[in-house]
Specification:
Blueprint (H helix, E strand, L loop, with lengths): L11 E4 L7 H12 L5 E7 L1 H13 L3 E7 L6 E7 L3
Parallel strand pairs: 1-2
Antiparallel strand pairs: 2-4, 3-4
């Protein structure tokens, strides 16, 4: 899967590739709480559980999942781009 070019640089960046559930979402939620409405974050994650649970939990809180894609073709690391609700 090829990543699309992202126009704007994200406001925040978080690498949770070394974390396991539930800490992956705990760290993501703490980041979201620091963000202002409409800001974006790019989150690096890996593993089946975080890949499934983090985007679903972000959406459940009412924020927008803008993109979820492999960091590079065949990579087990994915990039999740989110935007906080306005």
């Amino acid at each position: 899967m090829q990543r699309r070019a992202v126009i704007a640089k994200p406001d925040y960046y978080l690498d949770i590739t070394a974390d396991v559930c539930p800490m992956t979402f705990v760290r993501t939620r703490l980041l979201i709480e620091r963000m202002s409405p409409g800001q974006t974050a790019e989150i690096r994650l890996k593993g089946e559980e975080p890949l499934k649970n983090v985007p679903a939990s972000v959406a459940e809180l009412g924020h927008t999942v803008e993109e979820l894609a492999a960091e590079s073709p065949g990579s087990e690391i994915h990039i999740l781009r989110i935007r906080t609700k306005s």
